TrEMBL record:
Lineage: Eukaryota, Metazoa, Chordata, Tunicata, Ascidiacea
InterPro entries documented for this protein: C2_dom (IPR000008), C2_domain_sf (IPR035892), C2B_Ferlin (IPR037720), C2C_Ferlin (IPR037722), C2D_Ferlin (IPR037723), FerIin_dom (IPR012968), Ferlin (IPR037721), Ferlin_A-domain (IPR012560)
Membrane topology: Single-pass type II membrane protein
Annotated source species: Ciona savignyi (Pacific transparent sea squirt)
Entry's family note: Belongs to the ferlin family.
Descriptive protein name: C2 domain-containing protein
Length: 1379
């Protein structure tokens, strides 16, 4: 880049003050692998400054450096600024990465004397002068009266413009290069345009017979890099376009841009083109800046690239998720659905000198097209997903289904691929009785199977899985070591653990990675990445061996292990992963509600080695679903719509015989058809044949055939499961039916019955109207439910009118103004064993609706014209293939062509309207015969440092604990950010599943904290997950230990909770000793955390020094005039006296307070110290006007003070007097000496300059031998010896207000001055207590003082006047005084 230079002869030679401000922002593409770069900036002759050390080839510093000069502009103009980037890992001799030199004149000549540029780094000793990376800096030169520029306004509008933002050193130029993107074809593109016009043309005979949805895409691709763009031609009316086009994009290499963006778009004749999907390829994933043998130019493919975005279903008006197709909107940058994929190849070639520029677009030659065909070879893959549970469903959704898809395969709305058993049967959500809903999968759990066709890239994913396994194991082991260090365990044990970890690192890094050579679809990038990974393994193995021999410090070893993880993460990516992610969608009434994405490699099975298998292959795992949203600020980002527990397997069809979930359940396969009847006038119900669930596809029983390897097990039977879809009792043997009694009254009258409803709030005449369903019988009579928030008779009270009955806030205490009340009645029913069910049950199973498209229900109604019931027939395998026999079921997939001909009299009878319909596949289930009784105990002790959710700076927190399909909640703690719940919640759970899986892969307990507002609605505060202690046998006697867990909301911490969990197997045969019932809280019928788990308490003394408050801000437009302080430590509270007039007396007249209490021994459990300042106003109002929370109180904990002898011995007095005489003599001698040299008129400035070592200005003071002044380079607040320039008490900042999000901070409310001391007391209260810590305090009354401030001189001020100088003065504020 060329910069216009000023005429040096016109530059001023007058000495002036200048300041150069330089900011080192970041670096990119720094050469070398595993580097720790640091920037050294040399300005002028000797002024040098160094930044902090960062990691990686793209470090971020954002450090500001300032240089002051007193020079003429002509001299300053020639000063050189030298930037040097070094690798701090290496020795000084070979640490240089690159450097750049720039003179100050080049900066001074810029507009505004300001420069925001990228610097091209080179190595002066490198004969080729090749680039070594980029460094981004901002620098400005400030002279007399200059103002620093606004960096936010000075940012370049187009940061991707490389040439316009780059400074290159003299003699060095960027190499010309060319990015060649060869785009061959795309597939699986979704419908993008309306097909109404094309369908109309087909109906009038102007169109072909092809599926019009496949021709509703006019696709092209945009290729963006470094601010430049290339576009392919538009391929019209096909969802499988073929381009065979090569795009050439010239650039300067190496480029500072670190990503390539590819976007598929749909061309529109009118309006803007619509994005189909997008993908970003980081340049660091397809290239390397390492040394020779490791570094390589960007290369990619030939390989497929997957595109993601919004759901594939086309809507005429579009939807709010279309912005996901651009790849910019989502919080985590991911789309929620597969949108297609494209085959492409990307190569970078360095241009030769004098070579002609390549055209922007050109066709790919035939040889290359033929060569790419081998990369498109497909292999059959099997994906099996078993659903174990679905819980934490937030809303009572109806007809919930879960769809499993991989690419287009499994998408129930896509007719372009073969049908798969990819969607669960619809179920209604069942309320768990507390807050959430779940699906009632009990002993019969659904299994989904998807067959797909993909390229065989298993060798790529095997290597990735091996590296990810090593990283996961190493992270877990480092966590264990950190815990041992934190608990201060024996150093020998810690050292032994570290040696074991290093041995495992050496063993793991010695494992063989799959070699891509000889693989059908391997390419150059595969071989480069393989070589890079092998060398990384060798380096880590060698360093681990050296560390094992030489390391003597645990922290040094832990830091080295963290470094190993970071280096492994650099190679733990696979840019050519052409397997689409497995996506699980939750649907309700055929509408997509929530989803989760699972990388396919996490489920992949390897027949070669267990280490190559995915982390979740054939292992139960918990998945948290999320709402699809394009709004980065949406609350949907932290709301959990549902949670799934699944077990999955993905493998080649040739390896399907190895498929096994390792589960003790039996595979059951059932085929279904629906008998339908219609109601005709005068005839009643008339048979209408057998169809599928939609009523559109005829499915007579005779059409079903058993696939190879399967046999029918019995005849067709009526299946009442679908009728039970609308029954919340599905799968349970004992069910509680409920009903509600509503009463009302007028003022001064008695309560009168208003209505009676069933559990669905439908009005009934009386309790006898609730009949027991067939197959069930009543277990007891109707009783009032008093185990809820109600009075002793079960009533809840409210004030309402006829329009607001369903929206009431119910209270447990009756008031005179209440005019409505209700209570809940419950009655249990039990399922009759199958042998006792009558034959009449066979005639049941009907469900009714007005039409086939309407919602079905169980009870017949007058307007119902259609009814149906499901017939099922079970199949069993006829061979010994075990679980793998389910793969034979996909042979039953076929298409049924139904031709509807018009009347024979129609002239167009030869025209046929053809519909492709899919026969429903058999339903696959895993059936567990055993039912395990589990007992979960949740110990919720306390919370700490929660966020404020209410306007009064507090929250009303409660905790929801969820495990499998059960939820429990704590009581609400009012007006606190540090609640103490001290509750034990006990859940009895029936577990249908494999008990061995539960022991090995136990799901985590979900812990959520909510704020309860005045309307009893819950506002989310944060969540965490905790693994319970699993006790399935008598040998496990482990006692739960309370631990702190961070709760998070939208990826930032919102507090901590102290909890512990244990799960016990209640086996009827082999009794496991159950823990004793926890004790009850005094006065409250709630179990508390039992002794042995709750923190151990000890007798503790707390001394409070509450001095006063300062700078209190007004609260609700009124000034704070009469404050008092409330201090809380756990259950201990202290209230001070009131300051009557804050303006006259800001201190408390009685500052000392003393309290004895039982507090935890362990610092880990010690409650926070909460300081609340309240203002005592008229009419008894005492609002909290500010608060401060001290979470770490260890700094205030001291040893008990010792007793001091009041009387001194006579010998001690003699020694003290002799020392005083010696000191007085020394002072007299010093005074005489000072009087002698006073004659030379040495002043204070001489002493000052002598202290600085300035012999020219101190006269003969240095020869006098008098005392010198100690001059500190930093503020006294930073000096330890001055106690950070603070007085004997501390100043705490007070805050108030509600925190909405992570970026918000509570409002400043004032300051509190005081301190605390905490120490233990003897356990026996009869023993004498230690003396008080705070004694002989100065009076707290207001006194008149004089403050002397010596203003000596200032350094390095920026010039402000035209003469290059400034006229500085200082403003001093002390209290209300200003100088």
């Amino acid at each position: 880049m060329f910069i216009n230079r000023a005429d040096r002869s016109k530059l001023s030679e007058k000495l002036e003050d200048f300041q150069i401000r330089l900011k080192v922002v970041c670096g990119r593409q720094l050469t070398g692998s595993n580097i720790k770069p640091v920037v050294q900036v040399k300005m002028g002759k000797v002024k040098m400054k160094i930044t902090k050390i960062r990691k990686g080839s793209s470090p971020v510093w954002n450090e500001l450096l300032m240089y002051n000069f007193h020079e003429s502009l002509k001299e300053l103009y020639d000063y050189v600024v030298e930037f040097t980037v070094n690798n701090s890992r290496k020795l000084r001799s070979d640490s240089l990465i690159g450097s750049f030199k720039l003179d100050v004149g080049s900066i001074y000549d810029q507009p505004g004397k300001y420069l925001l540029k990228w610097l091209l780094l080179t190595d002066p000793d490198d004969a080729s002068n090749s680039p070594k990376g980029y460094l981004k800096i901002t620098v400005c030169v400030l002279g007399a009266g200059d103002q620093p520029p606004d960096e936010s306004a000075a940012k370049d509008e187009n940061e991707d413009d490389v040439e316009g933002n780059l400074l290159t050193p003299a003699g060095a130029t960027l190499h010309s290069a060319n990015f060649a993107l060869s785009l061959f074809s795309a597939e699986d593109l979704p419908q993008m345009d309306s097909i109404a016009f094309k369908s109309m043309k087909q109906k009038i005979g102007l169109g072909g017979d092809e599926d019009v949805s496949k021709t509703s895409v006019d696709a092209y691709l945009t290729f963006k890099f470094a601010g430049k763009k290339r576009v392919t031609e538009v391929i019209k009316e096909t969802n499988e376009p073929v381009w065979n086009e090569r795009l050439n994009l010239p650039l300067k290499f190496p480029s500072m841009c670190d990503s390539i963006k590819l976007t598929l778009k749909d061309w529109d004749r009118v309006g803007c083109d619509d994005p189909i999907g997008s993908v970003t390829i980081p340049l660091s994933h397809i290239s390397s800046t390492g040394e020779a043998g490791i570094g390589f130019l960007p290369t990619f493919g030939p390989s497929f690239v997957n595109f993601y975005g919004s759901p594939r279903e086309f809507t005429q008006l579009g939807n709010s998720l279309d912005e996901l197709n651009t790849g910019k909107a989502s919080l985590d940058g991911e789309g929620c659905a597969y949108r297609g994929r494209a085959m492409m190849e990307l190569l970078m070639r360095m241009d030769e000198e004098g070579a002609e520029p390549k055209p922007p677009s050109q066709p790919v030659n035939e040889e290359k097209i033929a060569l790419v065909q081998k990369y498109m070879r497909r292999r059959q893959y099997r994906l099996v997903v078993g659903f174990e549970s679905a819980n934490l469903i937030r809303k009572p959704l109806e007809r919930i289904e879960f769809e499993v898809s991989m690419g287009n395969y499994g998408n129930k709305f896509d007719c372009d691929v073969k049908l798969s058993a990819s969607t669960t049967e619809p179920h209604n959500a069942v309320f768990d009785g507390v807050h959430y809903h779940y699906l009632a999968w009990t002993s019969k759990k659904p299994i989904m199977m998807v067959t797909s066709q993909w390229e065989d890239i298993s060798f790529r994913l095997y290597a990735l899985n091996l590296i990810l396994r090593i990283i996961d194991e190493l992270q877990d082991q480092i966590t264990e070591v950190n815990l041992m260090v934190k608990q201060k365990e024996d150093e020998i044990e810690i050292a032994s653990k570290i040696v074991t970890i290093l041995d495992e690192v050496i063993l793991n890094t010695g494992k063989k990675l799959p070699n891509p050579r000889g693989r059908t679809v391997s390419n150059q990038l595969d071989r480069r990445i393989h070589r890079q990974r092998v060398q990384m393994f060798e380096m880590i193995s060698q360093e681990a061996k050296e560390l094992r021999q030489n390391c003597t410090d645990a922290q040094e070893a832990i830091a080295a292990l963290h470094d190993f993880i970071q280096r492994l993460e650099l190679v733990s990516h696979e840019p050519q992963n052409s397997f689409p992610d497995v996506i699980i969608w939750m649907l309700s009434d055929n509408k997509r509600v929530a989803y989760t994405r699972i990388p396919a490699y996490d489920l992949l099975y390897s027949p070669e080695r267990q280490d190559y298998c995915g982390r979740f292959c054939s292992k139960p795992c918990t998945l948290t679903l999320k709402y699809p949203t394009a709004n980065t600020k949406s609350k949907k980002h932290y709301k959990v719509p549902a949670q799934l527990r699944i077990i999955a397997w993905l493998g080649r069809a040739k390896d399907q015989s190895n498929f096994e979930f390792h589960s003790k359940g039996d595979i059951s396969v059932i085929q279904d058809t629906y008998e339908t009847e219609i109601k005709l006038p005068f005839k009643g119900w008339t048979a209408d044949g057998y169809t599928d669930i939609t009523g559109e596809i005829p499915l007579p029983k005779s059409v079903f055939r058993c696939p190879t390897g399967w046999l029918w097990d019995g005849d067709w039977k009526i299946n009442s499961d679908l009728a039970s879809l609308y029954d919340t009792t599905l799968g349970h043997m004992h069910v509680v039916e409920d009903a509600f009694e509503f009463e009302m009254r007028d003022v001064g009258t008695a309560w009168q019955v208003r209505k009676v409803t069933n559990g669905k709030m439908e009005t009934i005449c009386d309790m006898g109207a609730i009949k027991v369903p067939s197959g069930w019988e009543w277990e007891n009579e109707w009783t009032v439910d008093t185990k809820r928030a109600c009075d002793e008779d079960g009533w809840e009270y409210a004030t309402s009118d006829d329009q607001t009955v369903g929206e009431l806030v119910w209270s447990t205490a009756e008031k005179v103004y209440h005019n409505s009340r209700k209570r809940r009645l419950v009655r249990s029913r039990v399922c009759i064993p199958l042998k006792q069910k009558t034959a009449e049950l066979l005639e049941e199973g009907w469900e009714y609706a007005t039409t086939m498209g309407c919602e079905f229900h169980i009870d017949p109604k007058m307007l119902d014209l259609v009814r149906r019931r499901k017939w099922s027939r079970r199949m069993v395998t006829s061979d010994d293939r075990g679980s793998a026999a389910i793969f034979q079921l996909d042979k039953s997939i076929s298409y049924m062509f139904t031709f509807f001909c018009v009347l024979e009299s129609d002239k167009k009878a030869n025209k046929k309207d053809r519909h492709y319909q899919k026969i429903p596949l058999p339903k696959i289930y895993v059936v567990y015969e055993s039912v395990w009784q589990l007992h979960l105990r949740a110990y919720i002790y306390q919370g700490r440092d929660l966020i404020a959710m209410d306007g009064d700076s507090f929250s009303d927190p409660l905790v929801l604990v969820s495990f499998l399909n059960h939820t429990a909640r704590t009581e609400v703690q009012k007006h606190t950010l540090n609640p103490i719940w001290d509750e034990t919640m006990m859940l009895d759970i029936k577990f249908y599943g494999d008990i061995d899986h539960l022991k090995k892969y136990c799901p985590e307990v979900s812990v959520e904290v909510f704020d309860s507002d005045d309307l009893n609605s819950l506002q989310f505060m944060g969540r965490t997950s905790v693994k319970p202690i699993v006790k399935l046998d008598q040998e496990n006697n482990q006692t739960p230990k309370l631990e702190w867990h961070d709760i998070t909301k939208a990826n930032y911490t919102t507090g901590n909770v102290l909890t512990a969990f244990e799960m016990i197997l209640v086996n009827k045969n082999d009794k496991i000793e159950m823990p004793l019932p926890p004790p009850l809280k005094p006065g409250v019928n709630l179990p508390m955390v039992p002794f042995g788990i709750r923190p151990v308490l000890q007798r503790t003394a707390i001394e409070f020094l509450i001095w006063g408050v300062r700078t209190m801000k007004p609260f609700k437009l009124l000034s704070v005039n009469s404050p008092s302080v409330l201090i809380q430590i756990g259950a201990v509270e202290l209230r001070t006296k009131i300051i009557k007039n804050l303006k006259k007396q800001p201190n408390f007249t009685e500052p000392l307070y003393y309290i004895e209490a039982n507090l935890p021994v362990d610092d880990l459990y010690f409650p926070p110290i909460v300081i609340r300042v309240k203002d005592n106003r008229k009419f008894g109002s005492r609002p909290t006007v500010g608060q401060h929370i001290i979470t770490k109180s260890i700094q205030y904990r001291i040893k008990p003070p010792c007793h001091v002898e009041k009387m001194l011995k006579q010998s001690d007095i003699t020694i003290i007097l002799r020392l005083l005489l010696v000191k007085i003599q020394q002072l007299l001698n010093g005074t005489i000496h000072w009087l002698q040299i006073r004659e030379e008129e040495l002043d204070w400035w001489s002493k000052f300059y002598a202290s600085l070592g300035d012999g020219g200005n101190c006269r003969s003071y240095m020869e006098s031998g008098l005392d010198l002044i100690k001059v500190y380079k930093d503020e006294l607040e930073k000096q330890e010896e001055f106690n950070h320039f603070s007085d004997f008490i501390q100043t705490f900042q007070l805050f108030r207000g509600k925190v909405e999000n992570e970026d918000d901070e509570p409002d400043f409310a004032g300051q509190f001055k005081g301190t605390f001391r905490i120490y233990t007391l003897p356990e026996d209260s009869r023993e004498p207590s230690p003396p008080r810590y705070f004694q002989h305090l100065p009076p707290s009354d207001v006194v008149e003082v004089k403050v002397r401030i010596y203003v000596i001189r200032a350094f390095g001020l920026a010039p402000q006047d035209a003469n290059g100088l400034s006229d500085p003065y200082i403003k001093i504020k002390a209290g209300k005084k200003r100088i």
